């Protein structure tokens, strides 16, 4: 049995931008953050990304991609000193909570054997079975971070990965599942459409520091059409699959390349600005995590659109490259300690529940 005090957990995230695996150690009892530990990144090779990309949107015949995910995780995780528990998110390849469910590939039971450590995994399925979106799940960790930072007024965490998601937090509440503590949802597409366009039109994986967007002009017609999409008028909680806004590809096709990248960047920023209307109050600060915080054009657009300070999480001493990996370390400990990992305000699940299962190595 795992002890109920603080334990050393190692969390992983293989996100929708398909760039690689983040892994980070966190010492926590599943409520309080005690210590941040070492972290590491293991990029996918172009060949590996292609195999995963080919699995996107599929619900079966994803064994090759699952093997890539398991191998990459086994490699990165074996570089760390032993820990008490691993939180393995896996790789989302399909997400349709109202229909077929949600699929994160990679088998946690195999990793438990290979690494000889208990593994918490399959974090999203139970939430979907109980009527939730299965995402976003980082909000309970964002709540712990707000407490760790000593916030006294509402704050927001904004993750800009392949998809964007925000969490509004009232730090005066004592637990994340308490009524009014959290509002969370996916804001819209973030880096994924920018990356896809950069790859096909510029042969680059992403728009480094937003330099291409900076040179272009935003097309107001496309931006207006994008912002009138029904997704933005749905009340939260709500979540997206990586390619739910594939229609953007057609809309930007007639634009000059710099203008297309500028417009996609504005779509990401303005979806967040519009999303703010769903929050109970203006936060005292927006702490930005995920790779999008390194895009200066995107950060400038957010600052111009949001009437509050917009800061990379590094400004308050956190690591924006590893925050999601830490989140799955945190959630793993919550699963082990029988604490909830989502609630009606974060995913729309019927009641606060603890998702995730724990696989133990044979003999433990
Ligand atoms: N220097 C940079 N300039 C601009 N964009 C960057 C930079 N560095 C990273 N990014 C963007 O951030 C992306 C990676 O972000 P991140 O690692 O947060 O995504 P993820 O975890 O895969 O996604 P998700 O949170 O949706 O699961 C890159 O693919 C790129 O688009
Ligand atoms: C289904 C799925 O994997 N969703 C991811 C994705 O990437 C960002 C956004 O969409 C968020 O909803 C979620 O990831 C973060 C870690 C979350 O669950 O909080």
Automatic annotation (TrEMBL):
Keywords: ATP-binding, Carbohydrate metabolism, Kinase, Nucleotide-binding, Transferase. Its EC number is 2.7.1.170. ATP binds at residues 15-22. Pfam families: AnmK. It catalyses: 1,6-anhydro-N-acetyl-beta-muramate + ATP + H2O = N-acetyl-D-muramate 6-phosphate + ADP + H(+). The keyword Cell cycle does not apply. One of its GO terms (biological process) is amino sugar metabolic process. The keyword ATP-binding applies. It is an enzyme of class 2 (transferase). Transmembrane segments: none annotated. InterPro entries: Anhydro_N_Ac-Mur_kinase, ATPase_NBD. GO terms for molecular function: ATP binding; kinase activity; phosphotransferase activity, alcohol group as acceptor. It comes from the Bacteria. Pathway: Cell wall biogenesis; peptidoglycan recycling; Amino-sugar metabolism; 1,6-anhydro-N-acetylmuramate degradation. Catalyzes the specific phosphorylation of 1,6-anhydro-N-acetylmuramic acid (anhMurNAc) with the simultaneous cleavage of the 1,6-anhydro ring, generating MurNAc-6-P. Is required for the utilization of anhMurNAc either imported from the medium or derived from its own cell wall murein, and thus plays a role in cell wall recycling. HAMAP family: AnhMurNAc_kinase (MF_01270). Belongs to the anhydro-N-acetylmuramic acid kinase family. This is Anhydro-N-acetylmuramic acid kinase. The gene is anmK.
């Amino acid at each position: 049995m795992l002890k109920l005090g603080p334990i050393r957990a190692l969390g992983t995230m293989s996100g929708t931008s398909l760039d690689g695996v983040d892994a980070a150690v966190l010492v926590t009892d599943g409520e309080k953050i005690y210590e941040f530990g070492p972290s590491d990144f293991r990029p996918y090779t172009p060949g590996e990304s292609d195999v995963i990309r080919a699995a996107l949107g599929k619900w079966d015949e994803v064994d090759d991609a699952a093997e890539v995910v398991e191998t990459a995780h086994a490699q990165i995780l074996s570089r760390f000193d032993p820990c008490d528990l691993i939180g393995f998110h896996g790789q989302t390849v399909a997400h349709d909570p109202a229909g077929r469910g949600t699929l994160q590939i990679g088998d946690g039971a195999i990793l438990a054997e290979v690494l000889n450590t208990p593994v918490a995994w399959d974090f999203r399925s139970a939430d979907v079975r109980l009527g939730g979106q299965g995402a976003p799940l980082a909000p309970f960790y964002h709540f712990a971070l707000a407490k760790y930072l000593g916030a006294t007024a509402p704050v927001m965490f904004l993750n800009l990965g392949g998809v964007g998601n925000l969490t509004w937090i009232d730090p005066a509440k004592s637990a994340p599942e308490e009524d009014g503590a959290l509002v969370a949802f996916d804001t819209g597409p973030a880096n994924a459409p920018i990356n896809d366009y950069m790859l096909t039109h510029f042969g680059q994986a992403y728009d480094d520091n937003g330099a291409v967007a900076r040179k272009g002009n935003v097309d107001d017609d496309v931006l207006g059409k994008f912002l009138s999409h029904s997704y933005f008028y749905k009340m939260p909680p709500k979540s997206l699959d990586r390619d739910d806004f594939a229609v953007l590809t057609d809309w930007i096709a007639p634009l000059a390349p710099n203008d297309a990248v500028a417009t996609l960047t504005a779509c990401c920023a303005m979806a967040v600005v519009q999303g703010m209307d769903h929050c109970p109050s203006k936060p005292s600060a927006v702490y930005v995590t995920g790779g999008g915080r390194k895009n200066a054009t995107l950060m400038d657009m957010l600052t111009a659109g949001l009437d509050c300070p917009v800061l990379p999480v590094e400004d308050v001493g956190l690591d924006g490259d590893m925050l999601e990996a830490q989140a799955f370390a945190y959630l793993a400990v919550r699963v082990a300690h029988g604490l909830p990992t989502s609630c009606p305000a974060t995913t729309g699940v019927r009641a606060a529940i603890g998702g995730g299962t724990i696989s133990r190595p044979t003999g433990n």
